[in-house]
Design goal:
With 228 residues, the chain is of the alpha/beta class. It has ten helices and five strands, in the order E-H-E-H-H-H-H-H-E-H-E-H-H-E-H. It has two domains: 136 residues, Rossmann fold; 87 residues. Helix 1 packs across helix 10, helix 2 crosses helix 5 and helix 8 packs across helix 9. The structure holds cytidine-5'-monophosphate (C5P).
């Protein structure tokens, strides 16, 4: 394991709209760490499948999507060129991503991108943050800090509704809530790498905390590691 003062690896896991993406961005900015939103890899793979009129629950379609994404990433100057497509944020892409993510071969295909990112030390950065569902349990079981971010389902559905409405999408609370429950069930009940907190993860419930309060809790966990 690397020295956390030279290259710290932070794993953030949790369900959709728990606040882990916002925390990951804020932490990366505060610490000058690189950040990978691993959900975007699943979303982008599923998007490729949908573009080809495929079915993200079928193994061969899902693998083709992952392989197309991998070759796009290899050919790109930076990850954001491939993962910055706003269509990836749509709920239908999220649902397709969670279907694809339940297929073991698809998870395996996307594994090395995440592991390589986590372990590559880049000049000028103190470490990396990966956020997803299985970072602390499968991708980086030796991460220096593991945080499990959660929030009540109602709070998460309201956050997601606000986010989608701010993008001009015509959605209702009940539809967003139902979609979220369905996706949570698929993510927590799948056989391979189901969503759950690693036994050594620190839990943060963001239901009643501001963005700044969540960041401050996470930063105090980082400080403890640096001083231990
Ligand atoms: O985090 P986000 O909602 O963008 O992720 C989309 C879907 O990708 C999740 O519902 C989950 O099924 C899948 N995913 C995963 N493992 C990760 C990240 C995302 O299974 N590390």
């Amino acid at each position: 394991m690397t020295n956390p003062d030279e290259h710290m690896i932070i794993a953030l896991d949790g369900p959709a709209a728990s606040g882990k993406g916002t925390l990951a961005k804020n932490l990366a900015m505060a610490l000058n760490f690189r950040h990978m939103d691993t959900g975007a890899l699943y979303r982008a793979s599923a998007y490729e499948v949908l573009q080809n009129q495929g079915d993200p629950s079928r193994e061969d379609d899902a693998l083709a999507g992952c392989n197309t994404l991998k070759s796009k990433i290899l050919g790109a100057e930076n990850l954001n060129d491939v993962l910055g497509n706003p269509d990836l944020r749509k709920d239908e892409t999220g649902t397709a991503a969670s279907k694809l993510a339940a297929i073991p071969a698809a998870r395996e295909a996307l594994k090395s991108i995440q592991i390589d990112f986590a372990h590559e030390q880049k000049q000028g950065y103190g470490g990396v943050i990966l956020d997803g569902r299985d970072i602390g349990t499968v991708i980086c079981p030796n991460a220096h800090l593991k945080l499990y971010i959660e929030a009540d389902t109602e709070v998460r559905a309201k956050r997601r509704l606000k986010e989608l409405q701010s993008k001009g999408l015509d959605v209702t609370y009940s539809a967003v809530f139902a979609e979220m429950r369905e996706r949570d069930a698929r993510d927590t009940q799948r056989d391979t790498a189901p969503l759950h907190a690693a036994s050594d993860a620190i839990m943060i419930n963001t239901s009643h905390l501001s963005e700044e309060e969540v960041l401050s809790k996470a930063l105090s966990c980082v400080r403890e590691i640096r001083h231990s």
